[in-house]
Design goal:
The chain is α/β, with parallel strands linked by helices. 38% of the residues lie in helices and 27% in strands. It is built from 6 helices and 6 strands. Strands 1-2-3-4-5-6 form a 6-stranded mixed β-sheet. The radius of gyration is 14 Å and the shape is globular.
């Protein structure tokens, strides 16, 4: 039986009120995973906050071994924030944390990840259940 999620607010360095309004996030803690829900805009302006959010989420996911990034409520995400996420996913993998993305609306995010060859490090799933069930093969992890 899976434990019920426990939502927590991320504790982040002060990045200013404007950045905090433009990019928000919260975590759902589960027994075997952390789900990072992001809201707003991840762009060049909010990038410092985006990176702090990702770092905090990966750290929280470390004891659980799995992080799912839910982008269903993000209004905009630039290419560089996608690369930031993929870089953190790659580093997290070496630390034993599997990272996946939940995006029910295929589009630009999926294309950027595929074109950049990042699918091995940052798989995208159309449902939260599929993202939570993600278990990479050893071949995927060594690419």
């Amino acid at each position: 039986m899976e434990s019920r999620p426990h939502s927590v607010e991320l504790v982040l360095p002060d990045t200013g009120a404007d950045l905090s309004r433009r990019l928000q996030a919260d975590l759902d803690l589960r027994a075997d995973a952390v789900i990072l829900h992001v809201y707003g805009e991840a762009d060049a302006y909010t990038r410092p906050r985006w990176r702090a959010i990702l770092d905090a989420a990966v750290a929280e996911a470390a004891p659980r071994g799995r992080l799912v990034v839910d982008v269903t409520a993000i209004q905009f995400i630039g290419c560089r924030p996608i690369l930031d996420l993929a870089e953190r996913a790659q580093r997290a993998t070496t630390g034993g944390v599997r990272v996946a993305m939940f995006n029910p609306y295929p589009g630009v995010i999926d294309r950027v990840i595929t074109i950049a060859g990042l699918s091995a490090w940052l798989p995208v799933y159309p449902t939260l259940a599929a993202a939570l069930a993600f278990a990479p093969t050893s071949d995927t992890m060594t690419r």
